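Pipeline run #58 for the internal structure catalog. This entry was flagged by the ingest filter as a single-chain record with no existing model, so it goes straight to prediction. Upstream metadata was stripped on purpose; only the residue string is passed forward. Reviewer on rotation: M.T. Logging verbosity set to normal.
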Amino acid sequence: MTKRALDLRLHRLSPDDPAIGASYGNLAMLTVSTGDYEDSLRYSELCLDIRMKNEANETENISCTYLYYGWCYARMGNMDKAEEFFKRAIGVMRDRFGEGALGLKPQTMDLYQALGREEDAYKAHLDAYMIGKDLYGPLSPRIFTSLYKLAWSMAKTLLEKMEKEAYIVHIARTQYLLAAILAKLDEEEASEELKEKASAIGKELNGPSWEPRRGEADFDQLVFFHDR
């Protein structure tokens, strides 16, 4: 449908019409999602070329086009190029609206998320929410999106932290169970070393000592723990 829309616009409009640029932009994002990265870069270039011809009136759209490049390079794993284009997107908005502008925040969030800097992305969401609240009032529909993204970012960050700690807990518990088995095999030095590692993880997470509730661990308990 997106290509069909482009064909119709090319038939009815001039090649440099902003609507044509918008169609190329849509195709750039579509082909990123399908993994056709070379096509995405080509569509982004066509989109940017049209939008640069209308630069005075297309500031935000030019910034968005740089985002298309950024997300494409991020998906390709070329994080240096991704960061370059995300920063271009931010620079366009900063030059037009100033450092603290609300319109600057989405580009900043995209940069941080692409680079895996979730804490910085969360702070950018929070900044956007606070700016929007001051501009439009706390109950304005304009800030609902910022509030939603803030909640999503916070929940995502917390869930990732929980997932990581749960995995660490799994490691520590396994270390303690192995230590108990080594102790039964009279491998006391190796057993104590593993116990110390497990205890260190417990202290780091303010968690338990990983000692089994009913006596020492045995091989059956270790297998059950891994298989469940």
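catalog note: The CA atoms of residues 14 and 72 lie 28 Å apart.
catalog note: Residues 99-227 form one domain.
status: ready for reviewer M.T.
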